[in-house]
């Protein structure tokens, strides 16, 4: 069963005590303003490890030395104390005995026997007792947001517990602490942990899988780059091997050999003979290279000619198109010719001229038609041009390689004796061996550092284990439960008739809420009426409370609501607080606003009873309502009645 708030205890500086007791289900504290109701939320928030106290300064803080909250969980009582004057000092204890009586045992002497500890130490102990223990929820993609979420914290769950007075009917925000983007993001990200859907192992698997994915992508990119560089590697070996053979005046028959075959040739090069100069025919080799260069230059020239031709054709096509456009524009004669022409002197009709004019008009119409057909035709030659440009670049590289071979051969041609030739041959042989060694060491290093298949197998295992958590399915189920519950609650809550037939939707993945009406999405801020805003807040939070109660949630099943009836003030005419129950029972005049206030409490009552009857839940989660309203119909749920001139918190 989920944890709930059993007691709030204020221990005074002089040892005086103020104890409040609560049960599961509905707990109502009624009273006038300034009686201490709203301070209760802040006291609980402070005891749930808020860094600083937001308890209103005044009588409560003047009276109190230690603020204490007692949570009951699995038949044990978890006691948390916070020093008022020294907020960094905390007290923590767990009482396992069923005979432990809070009213008799917890006082100033109880805490004097306890050693103070830091807030972080006590928080960690409390979370471990709840089962909320995940040390690191940060993932690699968090760096993109400059956000280190770190350890899961009960602090982040308080957004699900509290609806403060200024929030409960707020049209701009649903959740406490969501005015801070980073805090809201952390609450949303840690929500699956609060629900018990995932644990520390899940985040460890997620982080490991992301690390593996990055490593695999990097290695595959390097392999792809290596594959693309095979031709370059082949050239690095082919050129010196070819040169070595030529210097030795040996015919090289493996121009088209693969990289692996070239590696084999490099390992088995012909040895350098003692009379190396007798085998060398520099002129013959130079002539062969010059011929090869001329052949490649001819191909390069032809390629350049084709490129120039295509570019010239494009320019001519543009000029022709522009000329046709200008001709068509000139041919557009907007003047209207007369059907008959007469002599300006005697007014006699001139039929021969009229026939010539008609013939010109027909010719003009045919010309315009022809021009319109020609102007609509275009052919894109960019693909052919790009292909030729790439071919030209490759051809230039071939010519450059031959030039390099010619330069190297001419250097050898200038040697004066046999010793210089042998040194040059050994130099070429050394270059070949170094290149080969570089390739082999690179391969061995890659195999030693990266076992890609092993990484992929580990990644598949991680992904399979992550899928086993079924997080997407759990989000979907949670959304269905919340949305169904919200829309059932909406039927009983005060909602404008004009919008009542719409549908509430909430997404646990990102905590977005919207109302769908006539196929239109309406945001909370776009709704009118405080009654609508209140109904949405209550529907969302009661539905989340049901989800917490029905799941393996590790957070307390509690909800604080501060003055939900405020949207119906000041029209309410019935008395809202009284020390005399008979006065309340004697009030007969009830306006519509009073009815709606009573209805809110009836919704709470029905909701909690249904959860208790639900076989999947079987208990009442805790709702604590801080109210001005005091209705006799709910006397059984009223824990305390406070008034300005009577009993109050302090």
Write up what this structure looks like.
This protein is of the alpha/beta class and 650 residues long. It folds into 4 domains: 1-132 and 555-650, Rossmann fold (3-Layer(aba) Sandwich); 138-198 and 469-554, no CATH class; 199-280 and 415-453; 293-329 and 348-397. It contains 20 helices and 14 strands. The protein has helices at residues 39-47, 59-63, 102-105, 108-112, 119-130, 154-157, 181-194, 200-228, 230-247, 259-267, 276-279, 282-331, 351-375, 382-413, 418-449, 452-468, 471-492, 530-550, 581-586, 592-613, and strands spanning 4-12, 17-21, 25-31, 64-73, 76-83, 89-95, 117-118, 162-163, 503-507, 512-517, 520-522, 558-562, 622-627, 638-642. The protein has a 6-stranded antiparallel sheet. A 5-stranded parallel sheet has the order 8-12-13-3-14, covered by helices on one side. Strands 9-10-11 form a 3-stranded antiparallel sheet. It starts with a strand and ends in an 8-residue tail after the last strand. 28% of the residues are buried. Mean pLDDT is 83; it is low at 142-148, 444-449, 571-578 and 583-589.
Chain oligomer state: single chain
Strand residue percentage? 5-15%
Mean pLDDT over the full residue set: 83
Task: State the strand order across the main sheet.
Answer: 2-1-4-5-6-7
Low-confidence stretches: 142-148, 444-449, 571-578, 583-589
Top-tier CATH class of the largest domain: Alpha Beta
Shape, per Cα inertia axes: flat
* CATH architecture identity of the largest domain: 3-Layer(aba) Sandwich
Distance between the termini: 33 Å
Q: Tell me how many strands there are.
A: 14
User: For the CA atoms, what is the radius of gyration?
Assistant: 44 Å
Fraction of residues in helices? 40-55%
Class based on secondary structure composition and strand pairing: alpha/beta
| CATH domain fold name of the largest domain | Rossmann fold
Pfam family, one: DUF3732
Protein name: Rad50/SbcC-type AAA domain-containing protein
InterPro entries: DUF3732 (IPR022205), P-loop_NTPase (IPR027417)
């Amino acid at each position: 069963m989920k944890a709930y708030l059993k007691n709030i205890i204020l221990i005074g500086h002089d040892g005086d005590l103020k104890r409040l007791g609560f049960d599961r289900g509905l707990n109502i504290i009624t009273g006038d303003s300034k009686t201490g109701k709203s301070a209760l939320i802040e006291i609980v928030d402070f005891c749930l490890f808020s860094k600083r106290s937001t308890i209103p300064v005044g009588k409560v803080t003047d009276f109190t030395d230690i603020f204490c909250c007692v949570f009951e969980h699995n038949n044990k009582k978890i006691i948390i104390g916070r020093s008022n004057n020294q907020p960094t000092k905390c007290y923590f204890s767990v009482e396992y005995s069923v005979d432990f009586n809070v009213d008799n045992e917890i006082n100033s002497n109880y805490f004097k026997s306890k050693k103070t500890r830091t807030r972080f130490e006590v928080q960690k102990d409390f979370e471990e007792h709840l089962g909320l223990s995940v040390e690191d929820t940060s993932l690699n993609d968090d760096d993109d947001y400059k956000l280190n979420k770190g350890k899961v914290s009960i602090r982040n769950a308080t957004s699900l517990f509290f609806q403060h007075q200024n929030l409960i009917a707020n049209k701009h925000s649903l959740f406490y602490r969501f005015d801070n983007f980073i805090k809201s993001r952390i609450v949303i990200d840690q929500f699956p942990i609060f629900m018990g859907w995932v644990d520390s192992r899940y985040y460890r698997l997620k982080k490991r899988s992301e690390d593996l994915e990055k490593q695999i992508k990097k290695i595959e990119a390097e392999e792809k780059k290596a594959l693309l560089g095979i031709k370059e590697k082949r050239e690095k070996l082919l050129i010196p091997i070819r040169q070595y053979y030529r210097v030795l005046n040996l015919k090289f028959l493996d121009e088209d050999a693969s990289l692996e075959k070239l590696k084999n040739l490099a390992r088995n090069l012909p040895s350098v003979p003692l009379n190396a100069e007798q085998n060398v025919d520099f002129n013959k080799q130079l002539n062969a290279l010059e011929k090869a260069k001329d052949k490649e230059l001819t191909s390069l020239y032809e390629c350049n000619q084709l490129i120039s031709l295509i570019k010239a054709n494009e320019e001519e096509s543009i000029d022709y198109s522009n000329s046709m456009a200008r001709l068509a524009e000139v041919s557009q004669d907007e003047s209207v010719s007369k059907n008959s022409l007469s002599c300006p002197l005697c007014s006699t009709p001139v039929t021969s001229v009229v026939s010539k004019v008609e013939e010109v008009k027909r010719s003009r119409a045919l010309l315009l038609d022809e021009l319109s057909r020609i102007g609509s035709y275009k052919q894109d030659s960019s693909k052919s041009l790009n292909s030729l440009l790439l071919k030209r670049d490759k051809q230039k590289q071939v010519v450059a390689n031959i030039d390099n071979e010619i330069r190297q051969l001419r250097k050898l041609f200038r040697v004066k004796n046999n010793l210089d030739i042998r040194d040059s041959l050994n130099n070429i042989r050394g270059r070949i061996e170094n290149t080969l060694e570089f390739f082999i060491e690179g391969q061995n290093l890659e195999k030693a550092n990266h076992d890609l298949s092993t990484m992929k197998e580990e990644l598949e295992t991680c992904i399979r284990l992550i899928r086993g958590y079924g997080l997407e399915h759990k989000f979907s189920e949670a959304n269905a439960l919340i949305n169904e519950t919200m829309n059932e609650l909406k039927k009983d809550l005060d909602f404008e008739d004009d919008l009542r037939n719409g549908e509430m939707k909430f997404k646990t993945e990102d905590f977005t809420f919207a109302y769908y009406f006539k196929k239109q999405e309406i945001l909370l801020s776009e709704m009118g009426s405080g009654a609508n805003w209140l109904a949405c807040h209550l529907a969302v939070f009661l539905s989340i409370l049901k989800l917490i109660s029905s799941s393996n949630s590790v957070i307390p099943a509690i909800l604080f609501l501060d003055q939900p009836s405020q949207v119906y003030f000041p029209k309410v005419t019935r008395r809202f607080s009284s020390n005399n129950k008979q006065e309340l029972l004697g009030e007969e005049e009830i306006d519509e606003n009073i009815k709606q206030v009573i209805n809110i409490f009836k919704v709470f009552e029905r909701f909690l009873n249904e959860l208790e009857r639900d076989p999947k839940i079987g208990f009442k989660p805790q709702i604590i309502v801080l109210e001005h309203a005091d209705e006799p119909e709910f006397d059984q749920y009223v824990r305390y009645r406070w008034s300005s001139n009577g009993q109050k918190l302090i």
